[in-house]
Amino acid sequence: MSKTIRLTMAQALLRFLDAQYVELDDQEYKFVHGVYGIFGHGNLLGIGEALENTEGLSLRYYQAHNEQGAVHAATAFAKQKNRLGILACTSSIGPGALNMVTGAATATVNRIPVLLLPGDIFADRQPDPVLQQMEMPHDYTITANDAFKAVSRYWDRIQRPEQVMTAALNAMRVLTDPADTGAVTLALPQDVQGEAYDYPIEFFAKRVWHIDRRPASEGSIKRAVQLIKGKQHPVIIAGGGVHYALAGKELQQFAEAFQIPITVTQAGKSILTWDHPLNMGGVGTTGTLAANRLAKEADLIIAVGTRLTDFSTASKTAFQNPEVEILNMNVCAFDGLKMSSTFLGADAKLGLLALTQALKEVGYKTAYSADYLADLKAKWNQEVDRLYSLQSKDGIMQTTALGVVNDFLTKNDIIVAAAGGLPGDLHRMWRSKGIKTYHMEYGFSCMGYEIAGALGVKMAEPDKDVYAMVSDGSFLMLHSELLTAVQEGRKITILMFDNGGFQCIQSLQKEHGSQAGFGNELRYRSASGRLDGDYITVDFAGIARSLGASAYTVTDLADLRGTLEKAQKAEGAALIDIKVIPGTHSEGYESYWRVGVAEISDNVQVTAAHAQHEEVLTRARKW
């Protein structure tokens, strides 16, 4: 008989997690680096006890100040580590657990591994109902944690201590699978967490999960070459999968070998530096003029490691050439078959290498002239220079402030952003000086990700300076993990763009018929009964100081660079509150985004906008 060790279920789970490693390209990485969360009655004496008292455990505990923020930090950590390392997140039952659901969705949408360990009600049902228990008369087995089923790639509830062995192995299977990863939820009843069992010793031995690169099949390469041979104006759309496959060099070599311009999604940006001749920048709704014109003319889209979302395809209107087809290289067939693509199932690194070799053998050439591509890039660079230098007597323009920041940051500095008008400006204009220095969560566009995400990135890359780019709306939703950064002595710098509310949504309203915007700015209620009075003045720097961070307020553009220098030299976390003129973000460049517009309205401008949408949709792909 095998030797056993008597442990509680929580102690066993943490010991198991501490012994997990992944291997890629003969390099080994410790997979689980710590546990991030908040304690309550549902996890304190189970997971909490195990973290406090288990000898030899290397997992560090990080104290969260909002459970959603904890999951965002863990997601950013895993994303920055190219999915080769994770943090687990723990919560109590009820509201603590449900606070993690939004974070779980953010991770799953972005194909990022994160392990969630919410507490649950008593498996023996004796304290009934327990504090914070949901009671569903039609199904007594349902708890708050069932909400995670809709946003998790794997879900389990551990009703007996020995079940954790099967559950933990399945959790690791999903967390380490490039094609199937996302949030994994193991619901842990609070009594079971503390129940003991005689676990086999070998369950806690070091275990290495091998991430084997998927090579392209001979048939898929032949089909891809046959497709590409008949095309003269292909365009690459590079997504986050290129980063996670560590395939940036292979992508660059592929593009250079055949003179194919590269465009990027939000997740794919900084796979090349901004000044590479073939890097045409962001594509789609928030894309550059150069990239969008190339996409419009392309007879072939070569999508690599991307989900082809509505933003990168401009709601399926970006590709206007009647002969256009899509070749989709992806490890996941679910993503690779979108928009009726020709699917090339492969790891991005191996797939690009094989495709490069095969196309060289047939002597493939594109019809692009170097001068044409250089001219497109030069004109876009001139436009960015213009946006970065705009001036106004009324104050600081957002695009100009970004230009100052872009000039100040170095090739080693990382920016983190997620929602609002900033992602559009950054996707279009930000000049990434270093590889993997642009960290954008835009799969879920989750407001509140930015500050927690910056902390997660700093934990993943402690030797680099990390800057959170956040608007006032997102800051107010979730800035709790700034306190964790202060607590941990992790230096992150928050660039807070105070523009008086949700300006990108206000612009969306105005573009579709609203005359003055409605309900999207931080204003007092006026005598009219609407929220259209004076702007509310918020001392965001004061909020940051109250949490222990250094903080500064900038109202004059001339002071911004000097303030950036002060924040850089400050010890610990810092915030710069930049007061920008509302609505001074960049606009779209020959792009479109489908939103629901009212077919009938008392405002004739709304019905006119609906008619315009209907006309544009006649040019959109239907699949």
In words, what does this structure look like?
The protein is α/β, with parallel strands linked by helices and 623 residues long. The chain folds into three domains: 4-210, Thiamin diphosphate (ThDP)-binding fold, Pyr/PP domains (Rossmann fold, 3-Layer(aba) Sandwich), CATH 3.40.50; 218-376, 3-Layer(aba) Sandwich (Rossmann fold); 389-500 and 536-579, Rossmann fold (3-Layer(aba) Sandwich), CATH 3.40.50. The protein is 36% helix and 18% strand. It is built from 23 helices and 23 strands. The protein has a six-stranded parallel beta sheet with strand order 5-4-6-7-9-8, sandwiched between helices. A six-stranded parallel beta sheet has the order 14-13-12-15-16-17, with helices on both faces. Helix 3 (67-80) runs parallel beside helix 5 and helix 8 crosses helix 13 (348-361). The longest helix has 19 residues, at 370-388. The protein is globular and about 75 Å long. The mean pLDDT is 94.
Q: Which labels suit this protein?
A:
single chain, 623 residues, alpha/beta, Rossmann fold, 3 domains, six-stranded parallel sheet, 23 helices, 23 strands
Summarize the structure.
This protein has 623 residues and is of the alpha/beta class. Helix 1 (9-18) packs across helix 2 (44-53). It is globular and about 75 Å long.
